[in-house]
Amino acid sequence: MFASTTGWDDHDRTLITAVDELNRDSMVSDTTWRKLSSMYDSEQLITLIATTARYRRVSMTLNVLGVQPAADDERLPVLDSPTP
């Protein structure tokens, strides 16, 4: 989804693809896993998956509870729309 947005290098695009796949499928494709495995060791791969899952859980909790960001909270940059 966001991996097709312009401006990412190959490393970032692989990470974003992995997170997109985890959020969409609760799984990482073999292709993406091979790319990640060439960039990270086993401990780092586990940390990547666990961190992604943790942020997903926090975001779901905040969304369900209707928590709104404070006016002075730092915001993520607005990205170009992903290409279809």
Number of discrete helical segments: 3
From N to C, what is the helix and strand string?
HHH
- What is the beta-strand fraction? under 5%
SSE class: mainly alpha
What is the number of beta strands? 0
The average pLDDT value, as a whole number, equals 88
Shape: globular
Low-confidence stretches: none
The gyration radius over C-alpha positions equals: 15 Å
Describe the protein's architecture and organization.
The chain has helices at residues 10-25, 30-39, 42-65. The chain is mainly α. Helix 1 packs across helix 2. It has a domain at 31-65. It starts with 9 loop residues before the first helix and ends in a 19-residue tail after the last helix.
List the helices and strands and how they pair.
Layout: H1 10-25, H2 30-39, H3 42-65
